[in-house]
Amino acid sequence: GRWELRLTFSGILNDKLHGFYRSTYKDANGKEKALASTQFESTDARRAFPCWDEPAFKAVFRVTLVIDDGLTAISNARVISETSLAGIGKKEVVFADSMKMSTYLVAFIVGEFEATDPVMVGKSPLRVWAVPGKRHLAKFAQEIGSFSLSHFSGYYDIAYPGDKLDLIAIPDFASGAMENLGAITFRETALLVDEAKATRAELERVADVVSHENAHMWFGDLVTMRWWNGLWLNEAFATFMEMIAVDAWKPEWRRWDSFTVSRAAAMQVDGLKSTRPIEFPVEKPEEAAGMFDVLTYEKGASVLRMLEQYLGAEAFRDGIRLYLRRHEYANAETTDLWDALEDSTRQPVRPLMDSWIFQAGYPLISVERDGRGLILSQSIFRYLQDGNTPERKWHVPIFIRAGTKRGVVNRTILLTDPRVRVELPDDADWVVVNAGGHGFYRARYSPDLMADLKQALQTSLAAVERFNLVNDAWATALAGLTPLSEYLNLIDLLRDETDVNVWTSVIISCHNLNRILGEKQRDALRTRVRAVFAAALDRLTWSPRAGESELDRQLRGDLIGALG
Ligand SMILES: [Zn+2]
Predict the structure, then answer these.
(1) Ligand 1 center to residue 25 CA distance, Å?
(2) Average confidence (pLDDT) over 486-512
(3) How far apart, in whole angstroms, are the C-alpha atoms of residue 497 and residue 349?
(4) So what's the ipTM on this one?
(5) What domains are there in the chain, each with its CATH number?
(6) CA neighbours within 13 Å on the CB side: how many for 506?
(7) 90-95, strands of its sheet edge to edge
(8) How many Å lie between the centroid of ligand 1 and the Cα of residue 18?
(9) Which tens digit of pLDDT belongs to each residue from 420-478?
(10) Burial of residue 14, with CB atoms counted within 10 A of its CB: 0-12 exposed, 13-18 middle, 19 or more buried
(11) Catalytic residues
């Protein structure tokens, strides 16, 4: 039959930054103040109240807080009543029922707080909260907050599942932010920003984090991983969606271009012998703590982006919608997402994604000419060539773009064998594999194809593709797979290069080379690359020009630094 269990318990307000914890900060007058906040992911709801503290036990939560008069309380749902308790200087705040959700998403925050005026997103008011004196720093976050929330409800085709959304800046917070439904907590620097004084990087960080957390309201909160092995997908997907929203909000930021740098960072780690697969079995929740790294966020998001580009953005989105509708207010396995994408696209998504998430590392795609076509082959990429490189095979979406007499030709294939021949409709003047730069793999071109690409470098390749060409040439040279001279020849051609990401990659590689080379070679290298850097700087001009972009300013600083 049906049973009802009532428990009376008392807990403590701890100072450990998880569970229900006490946090202190200095106010504008330097006076020490305290507030209380929660941080429950992964298993700290049990520190605050007795519960079945695993993501699959979803429940409706009704929160009532008795707090001092003069303080503010925030929880997952709206306040439905606030009653003064006569004579004791306290009040009782009752919140509406939450939606059915996991314990790690419950939150309550108590302290001195000020809020912005609400902005309505659909039927839900959205506010930004901060400790007194900081409300003027909340405007930017509220803008991207309301934009991304509305953008996601369109993308997912499901209204925001909460009854309001509060974005709360906590002075003392262990991680960047936490996606509690309706009451997202942030480290102050990830939410509050002075738009007039902030750098582009600081603004981008706030836009990224706010969008990321908002994406979780559906992916993570409405549909939740059944167990902690699925944590990577939760985070990888929110990272992917943060780019979708920020790119739609400010296309001029070219957010996917700057993501190339994050992808390259993940490829660097994933090219080491010690790397791990994206998903691995988790028995105890603590083991999932190892998942909060570059392989989860950046590699995970890259692989999702590669899949999206392979399936087509709309077809991919339709699969996401199907997945969310199938599992809303419930839990799902990683494979449920692949199944929904298969059902909506009729493409073999599961074997494709299994090859990327259960195998560590990534492939090197070697490309050579074969008559009018190309031969593509795959092998694992490792920096260390110690003769123990394992045999691995991926299902690799290959995006080919070729320049021919009759114009530019695009081809997409799924490479599942170690080697395949691709026929092109005409003789190619140049060929790019990984066109658009969405693939999580490196390319190694045969010398003749490389020579063609060098000719076409500034005329036919996008900045992202030039970045990958340079970055891959450096990585394969480091691994001893291609001669270093080939990489240096490529640098010689960068006198006209204007992309800051390409230059950052080149400058870092030169610093590293400087450390490895002997003194004589070092002098030769310095003379050679200085000539290129100086030419690029002449082109950019040594002093700032009126109306130039922040990226040009950054590039000038980088080049002058490298010459110094
Ligand atoms: Zn997240």
Answers:
(1) 25
(2) 92
(3) 38
(4) 1.00
(5) 19-216 (3.30.2010.30), 223-357 (1.10.390.10), 362-454 (2.60.40.1910), 483-564 (no CATH)
(6) 33
(7) 64-68, 90-95, 79-85
(8) 17
(9) 999 998 999 999 999 999 999 999 999 999 999 999 999 999 999 999 999 999 999 99
(10) middle
(11) 213
